[in-house]
Amino acid sequence: MTTLFANRAYLESKWYRQVRIQIEDGKVSSWESSTNPLPEDELVNILIPGVPNAHSHVFQRALTGHSEHKSPSGRDDFWSWRENMYRLAEKLNPEVLKPVARQAYAEMLAAGYTSVAEFHYIHQGGNGKHHANNMFEALAEAAQNVGIRLTYLPILYERSGFGQANLNVTQQLFALNLDDFVDHYHYANEQSSFGMSVGLGLHSLRAVSESSLEHVAYLAKNEECPIHIHIAEQTAEVDECIAIHGAKPLRWLLDNVEIDDNWCLVHATHTDEKELASLASTSAVICLCPTTEANLGDGIFPMTVWKALGGGIAIGSDSQVSINPFEELRWLEYGHRLVLRSRNIYATNPSTSTGETLFQEAVVGGNRACGHWRKPLAPGSNADLITLNEDNPVLAGHNSESILDALTFCGIHNVIDRVMVSGKWVVREGSHIASPKLEKEYAECVQKLWN
């Protein structure tokens, strides 16, 4: 048993003082507040829940900074960026993926992400060899090596667009037929170890057939596991869906598939109030990735509409252009401040702050998206947490009412002291415990990739 004593702790969406938390077998067994420390207690200053990263393409960590030159066409957007991503995907195999994933997962932990939903769709080698199981094993080993909680989401990717049967040459790397995809899901489930779970994913409506969509949705319902899908990220996707199906992607999905609270819809950028009102009634979560959406020029999700409907959110690092949950929350708010020319958009009411509201909803929604249903840091939940040093200059002068605002809006990355996952410290003094070794292996790997 491990016992932590915190001067302040944010537990079950509320601040408490003088808190003792008991941890057994990687889970919170009990906690009490307004108490005194005992000799065996491990002392920390400020304690908050870890943040779930609900959408990650971890291999894209090796792409960061390599797609920022003007293309020959003179116009750059998601589709031109995708060509750069494809060139990286062609170079990947399990031996390359493992050090890249280890580095990115360690960076996630140091930033305060304690779990990650890995949206993985590279199932074939450049030589045409089917290695979906080996790629999964590389991801699982990387997550286990660094200590992050992994929700593995194998992704079905069958076609290059609505009504198009053929994948292009690079997209063949993503291909699994439906039977092989289901077999791979069951293999991953059987191999999953402590601290890991498996869900299901569909790349997008344009990338899967209607019959396969129905089959995977039915499987997820039977398995009671998370199911994720990109939806309405690009206007070209929306226009093509209207041309083929006579409806926008989210509207068509809602009309043709039973959506429930196991669903996580990623981006949902180009959606309208009627679609979102229908989605809100399902209790599905929308995962937003503001730094990636900004980097790709996607657009801005209608957050004020979704918020008014009581919709749940999660956040994700997506393409890894930023690995920092508080930056995602900051830019989720800032995007709407710029559009609306107003402040404190996400605050619920005068008694709750913007940073606290964003943090609380991202933690709750992110846990749901990753398949972790218990309240964070409640008895029986995973002992996944962050500690902060109240002497840090970022937190100087702040009390419980503004700590989460300081974290969200300061824009400085050296605030986190330690991070725990499943009752084990994986970050100390702001760095992952294995950082030097991981950084060296990553540097050697990407040097070879880009040379």
Regions with little confidence, pLDDT below 50 for 5+ residues: none
Q: Give helix % range.
A: 25-40%
Number of helices: 14
Distance between the termini: 49 Å
Radius of gyration: 21 Å
Strand content: 15-25%
Mean of the pLDDT scores?
95
Task: Please give the largest β-sheet.
Answer: 9 strands, parallel
List keywords for this structure.
451 residues, alpha/beta, nine-stranded parallel sheet, eight-stranded mixed sheet, 14 helices, 37% helix, 22% strand
Task: Explain what you see.
The protein has 451 residues and is of the alpha/beta class. It has helices at residues 78-89, 94-111, 132-146, 178-191, 210-223, 235-245, 249-256, 273-280, 290-295, 303-308, 325-340, 354-369, 403-409, 435-450, and strands at 2-11, 14-24, 27-32, 42-49, 51-56, 113-120, 149-156, 196-198, 200-202, 227-231, 263-267, 285-288, 312-315, 385-388, 416-421, 424-428, 431-432. The strands form two sheets. Strands 5, 6, 7, 8, 9, 10, 11, 12 and 13 form a nine-stranded parallel sheet that branches. It has an eight-stranded mixed sheet with strand order 3-2-1-4-14-15-16-17, with helices on one face. Strand 16 (424-428) and strand 17 form a beta hairpin. Helix 11 (325-340) crosses helix 12 (354-369). The chain starts with a strand and ends with a helix.
